[in-house]
């Protein structure tokens, strides 16, 4: 037999959590054919991995690359991390369905795309046309469903609207969607009653698919939010994924043990509940997430009208000032901006921005939201590092970047993302290698077989004969992240080779130009 690719001389971590072993890996087509001593076999291509580690490709279970894959299908920021599969459509926002009044997130809307789409089928067809380098799994965003059917109204759905959402969800799942995601701190999802979520999830559970949730609170009401999320699983039987499990805000750090106990207890009762997390203590999302719920309804234009109206802006100022002290503003860094006059503030701490504008921090925040027309993002430093490591050590917690892909050049190099967009997976590998978190075999399991099982990817996540050849070769001495909060557009280091469906997309530390990624339907 002549193999298409043989990886020789590496220490193999098979993704199961087992200790490594020194073996070769032989690949034919898109599958692993043989594991063992392949010194005498012929191969069209040999990857020498002496002194290197070999493991399954990493699965980014919490990504927002939906539309950016259409712009930069080579996915450099992810491929250089060893990511071979991205789960997109998280936090209630998905690229599809895209009907009627639904407005995609502001960073997506600002871009020009190589085609148009409305349904999941049309998005999938366009994605397959541009040929991404990585595999893609699409969750269906609850906010996309709700806005498509009933806009951004601050109210409960009526029976006809709930049926409309259920029908659109069913269509989207049948066209390839992997499950439902919610973003219950964002408009319009924040206006949905728990019963609405349960009813929608029943259709997800009936198809054996997954429910993921950016919960209603990750701070003061974290435990109540967990109870609601786990309760959806208890009532419907659906697999539940808690998105970016964290304790936000110093006053809430003490909730971590009670939060973890809730998840452990649910699992002990037989509920299929898991979570993901990134190895950073700062979050990143739209700056206008700090606005109270009463100011967030009606959609973008209505929010901007409130910012422009003096009386309403004064009320917003008063409420934000009362709810947030000086320490809060000191822990906020501006990410991306939109208006040219605000470009100088990218990556800078809010007190610096406020001083330069001659404003109080609360007024500077409102000014940026207004002048950027809600395109400003914020980087929020509100988490405890000991809590982060405690959460990451839980055996059911997998790794998710919570970031869309970026590139050091081109249209995706112009903003100011969180460094997790470039560094999540090598950062966690480095921590494991340096003894700051779980063992290296366990760290790799959290990025490979654990997410593969949770998202029902039957032939990925482990290195074994017959499995798909999504593989990573990395340098254990050199692997790590280089992106920082000040300078985020920096590719990770130490990933030597990445194969997707048996095809090298990264070789010798450089992109090959190949784009063999597939749109995956879990369970197939």
Question: CATH superfamily of the largest domain, please?
Answer: Metal-dependent hydrolases
Give unreliable regions as ranges. none
Would you state the CATH class of the largest domain?
Alpha Beta
Mean of the pLDDT scores? 97
Please report the total strand number as a whole number: 23
Gross CATH architecture of the largest domain: Alpha-Beta Barrel
CATH fold assignment of the largest domain: TIM Barrel
Determine the N-to-C terminus distance. 28 Å
Count of discrete alpha- or pi-helical segments spanning 4 or more residues: 18
Helix content: 25-40%
Largest sheet report = 7 strands, mixed
Q: How many structural domains in the coordinates?
A: 2
Would you tell me the structural class of the helices and strands? alpha/beta
Write out the strand line-up for the largest beta sheet, numbering strands in chain order.
3-2-7-20-21-22-23
Describe it for me?
With 524 residues, the protein is α/β, with parallel strands linked by helices. It folds into two domains: 58-281 and 382-455, TIM Barrel (Alpha-Beta Barrel); 287-379, no CATH class. The chain has 18 helices and 23 strands. A seven-stranded mixed sheet has the order 3-2-7-20-21-22-23, with no helix packed on it. It has a six-stranded parallel sheet with strand order 11-12-13-14-15-19. Helix 5 (142-150) packs across helix 6, helix 6 (159-174) packs parallel to helix 7 and helix 13 (350-357) packs across helix 14. It is globular, with a radius of gyration of 22 Å. The two termini are 28 Å apart.
């Amino acid at each position: 037999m002549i193999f298409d690719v043989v990886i020789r001389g590496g220490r193999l971590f098979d993704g199961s959590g087992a200790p490594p072993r020194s073996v070769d890996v032989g690949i034919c087509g898109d599958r692993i054919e043989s594991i063992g001593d392949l010194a005498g076999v012929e191969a069209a291509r040999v990857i020498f991995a002496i002194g290197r580690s070999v493991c399954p490709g990493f699965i980014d279970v919490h990504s927002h690359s939906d539309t950016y894959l259409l712009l930069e299908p080579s996915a450099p920021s992810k491929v250089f991390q060893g990511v071979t599969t991205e789960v997109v459509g998280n936090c209630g926002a998905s690229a599809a369905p895209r009907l009627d009044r639904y407005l995609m997130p502001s960073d997506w809307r600002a871009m020009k795309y190589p085609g148009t789409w409305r349904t999941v089928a049309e998005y999938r067809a366009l994605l397959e046309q541009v040929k991404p380098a990585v595999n893609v799994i699409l969750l269906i965003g609850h906010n996309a469903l709700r806005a498509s059917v009933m806009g951004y109204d601050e109210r409960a759905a009526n029976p006809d609207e709930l049926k409309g959402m259920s029908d659109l969800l069913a269509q989207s799942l049948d066209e390839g969607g992997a499950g439902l995601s919610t973003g219950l701190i964002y408009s319009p999802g924040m206006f949905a009653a728990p019963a609405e979520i349960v009813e929608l999830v029943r259709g997800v559970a009936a198809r054996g698919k997954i429910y993921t949730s950016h919960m209603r609170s990750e701070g003061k009401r974290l435990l109540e939010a967990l109870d609601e999320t786990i309760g959806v699983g208890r009532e419907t039987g659906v697999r539940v994924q808690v998105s970016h499990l964290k304790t936000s805000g110093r006053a809430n750090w003490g909730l971590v043990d009670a939060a973890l106990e809730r998840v452990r207890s649910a699992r002990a009762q037989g509920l299929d509940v898991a979570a993901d997390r990134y190895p950073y203590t700062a979050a990143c999302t739209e700056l206008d997430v700090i606005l109270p719920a009463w100011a967030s309804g009606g959609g973008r234009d209505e929010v901007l009208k409130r910012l422009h109206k003096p009386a309403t802006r004064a009320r917003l100022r008063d409420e934000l000032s009362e709810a947030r002290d000086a320490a809060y503003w000191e822990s906020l860094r501006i990410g991306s901006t939109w208006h040219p006059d605000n470009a100088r503030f990218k990556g800078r701490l809010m007190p610096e921005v406020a001083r330069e504008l001659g404003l109080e921090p609360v007024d500077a925040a409102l000014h940026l939201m207004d002048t950027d027309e809600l395109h400003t993002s914020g980087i929020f430093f509100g988490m405890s590092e000991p809590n982060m490591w405690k959460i990451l050590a839980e055996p059911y917690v997998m790794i998710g970047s919570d970031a869309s892909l970026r590139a050091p050049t081109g249209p995706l190099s112009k903003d100011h993302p969180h460094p997790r967009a470039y560094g999540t997976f090598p950062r966690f590998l480095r921590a494991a290698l340096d003894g700051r978190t779980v063992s290296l075999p366990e760290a790799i399991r959290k990025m490979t077989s654990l997410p593969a099982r949770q998202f029902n990817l039957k032939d990925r996540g482990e290195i074994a004969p017959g499995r798909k050849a999504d593989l990573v070769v990395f340098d254990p001495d050199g692997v790590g992240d280089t992106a920082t909060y000040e300078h985020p557009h920096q590719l990770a280091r130490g990933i030597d080779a990445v194969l997707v469906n048996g095809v090298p997309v990264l070789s010798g530390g450089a992109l090959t130009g190949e784009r063999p990624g597939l749109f995956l339907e879990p369970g197939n």
